[in-house]
Design a protein that fits this description.
With 191 residues, the chain is α+β, with helices and mostly antiparallel strands. It has a domain of 101 residues. 31% of the residues lie in helices and 22% in strands. The chain has two helices and ten strands. It is elongated and about 85 Å long. The mean pLDDT is 89.
C-alpha cells in the first residue's frame, strides 16, 4: 500500500528542475544552428529570386526582340527591376539612364498601354529583397535579342560585352553571400 501512495504523488521538485535544466541546455545548443539555418534559407531564396528575374529578362529580350536591362538597388537599396531599353543599345534615350527609371509610378507595371510604338511595354514589377538581405556587388546588365549579355561600365559609357569569365551579382546576409554569375553568352548561373 505504501508503494501505491508514493506512485500517485507525481514528480519531485528535483526531477522537474533536472528536466528543465536539460531542456534549456539542449535549446541553448540548438538555437544558434537553427538561426544560422534560417539565415541560409532566406539568403538562398533571395538569390534564387534574383536569378529568376535575370533569366526572365533574358528570355523576354529574346522572345520580344527588345533589349532588356536588369537594374539593382533601383529605385532603392534592396530593390531590383527588369526594364525594357528605351531607344537602342547604340543610342539609348537619356531617360533610360535616369535614377527614376525603376519608378513604378513613372513606368508602371503593367504598362498603361501595349502600343508597340510607345516604350516601354516590357518592364517588370519592382522586386524587393528580404529586408535582411542586401546586394553587395551588382551592376546593370543588358540582354540583347540574340541572348548576349552586356554590362554597364559606369560613367555614361556604352554598355560593353561581358567577358567569358562573367560578372557577379552578390546577395548577402549576416556575412554570408551567394553569387549569380552572368557571362557574355547570356549564361546565368547561381553559385
Amino acid at each position: 500500500m505504501a508503494g501505491a501512495a508514493r506512485e500517485a504523488r507525481g514528480f519531485t521538485l528535483v526531477e522537474l528542475v533536472a528536466v528543465t535544466a536539460l531542456v534549456l541546455t539542449v535549446s541553448a545548443i540548438a538555437l544558434p544552428s537553427m538561426l544560422a539555418a534560417r539565415d541560409r534559407i532566406r539568403l538562398g531564396q533571395a538569390a534564387r529570386e534574383v536569378e529568376r528575374e535575370i533569366q526572365t529578362a533574358k528570355s523576354r529580350a529574346v522572345a520580344k526582340s527588345r533589349p532588356m536591362r536588369v537594374r539593382f538597388n533601383c529605385p532603392a537599396a534592396g530593390e531590383y527591376r527588369a526594364v525594357e531599353l528605351i531607344g537602342t543599345p547604340a543610342a539609348p534615350v537619356a531617360a533610360d539612364a535616369a535614377a527614376n527609371r525603376c519608378s513604378d509610378t513613372l513606368y508602371p507595371y503593367p504598362p498603361a498601354d501595349l502600343n508597340p510604338n510607345t516604350r516601354p511595354n516590357l518592364d517588370g514589377p519592382v522586386r524587393t529583397l528580404d529586408s535582411t538581405v542586401t546586394f553587395s556587388a551588382s551592376q546593370t546588365i543588358e540582354f540583347r535579342p540574340d541572348g548576349t549579355a552586356y554590362r554597364d561600365p559606369g560613367g555614361g559609357a556604352a554598355f560593353e560585352l561581358i567577358p567569358t569569365t562573367g560578372v557577379n551579382i552578390r546577395v548577402g546576409r549576416s556575412g554570408v553571400t551567394r553569387t549569380i554569375t552572368v557571362n557574355g553568352l547570356g549564361k546565368v548561373q547561381l553559385q
